[in-house]
Automatic annotation (TrEMBL):
It comes from Subtercola boreus. This is Helix-turn-helix domain-containing protein. Residues 31-52 are annotated as: Disordered. It comes from the Bacteria. GO terms for molecular function: DNA binding. The lineage of its organism: Bacteria, Bacillati, Actinomycetota, Actinomycetes, Micrococcales. Residues 92-140 form the Helix-turn-helix domain.
């Protein structure tokens, strides 16, 4: 498994965030059926109810609705003025990377791993943490709202 190959992007400027938010409001107000049938797939295969279309630089892409939802979530985060990091959930993190992501010290992360509270893998003598496991721990350690 590769180490985390993330793509980090700073928050967009406030004017761009406002324009993006306005555009997203139009998407969110459309019914899911309208979004999912906006274009026919270019590959010749028939569209299913689980397909959606995205247009990138004029190229129409047919994607599962889960992909569309992830892209919309990403765009909404930019509209909200957030910086964003995109990475694969099966990526492996070093102790320092996982600790920084969770917001704890590397020493405390190692204690959690030794106690079995967060899964750890060994690559030789080096500990590695799956991004998905770090995110699960982060979600479970947050206070309920």
């Amino acid at each position: 498994m590769p180490l985390l190959r993330e793509h980090a992007t700073e928050a967009v400027d406030p004017a761009a965030a406002k324009r993006l938010g306005a555009a997203l409001a139009g998407i969110h107000s459309a019914s899911p059926g309208e979004r999912a049938t906006a274009a026919s797939p270019p590959t010749g295969r028939s569209r299913t109810a689980r397909d959606a279309s995205l247009s990138v630089d004029g190229v129409e892409l047919t994607v599962p609705t889960a992909v569309r939802d992830a892209v919309l979530d990403l765009l909404q985060r930019f509209a909200d003025g957030e910086s964003v990091v995109v990475g694969s959930t099966d990526a492996l993190l070093t102790t320092s990377q996982a600790a920084a992501l969770i917001g704890i010290s590397a020493t405390y992360l190692l204690r959690l791993a030794n106690e079995g509270r967060i899964p750890v893998e060994y690559r030789g003598t080096h500990r590695r943490f799956r991004l998905a496991d770090a995110m699960t721990y982060l979600q479970s350690s947050r206070p309920a709202k």
